[in-house]
Amino acid sequence: MGSVTRLQPSQQPKVAFHRTEMSRILDVYGRMVMSGQAKDYAIGMYGDHAVFAIFRRHAEAPTWRIEKVPALRNQQGAYVVYGSQDQVLKRGHDLAQVLRVFETRRFEVINGNK
Q1: pTM flag (> 0.85)
Q2: pLDDT at 109 over 60
Q3: HEC string of the chain?
Q4: Pairing state of beta strands 79-82 and 64-68?
Q5: Nearest-angstrom CA–CA distance, 52 and 46
Q6: What is the tens place of the pLDDT at every residue in 12-47?
Q7: Beta bridge partners of 79
């Protein structure tokens, strides 16, 4: 008969976005792609937080980052949106409210040469 291979004990659990959270985030990302403001994204899962990074171009640093930090849910809120220079654009307890920062007109590219 064959031998039994023991599974390695799993490492520290990682924080991830739930399916409903990912649906809302991908909705926003899809609208940004259609308007030409985003071209790529990356997802990171770590022991203390999860990150969804949105890139304007493929080979750059992320233009926006959406982070979920469960340790802050009782204080400032578990969700944060950061800008390209790590400035906090919006923070809160409700993901839908935090993602409203992308619905403002300030992210539109305006051509001043008319």
Answers
A1: no
A2: no
A3: CCCCCCCCCCCCCCCCCCHHHHHHHHHHHHHHHHCCCCCEEEEEECCCCEEEEEECCCCCCCCEEEEECHHHCCCCCCEEEECCCCCEEEEECCHHHHHHHHHCHHHCCCCCCC
A4: antiparallel
A5: 12
A6: 788 888 999 999 999 999 998 888 888 899 999 988
A7: 68, 92
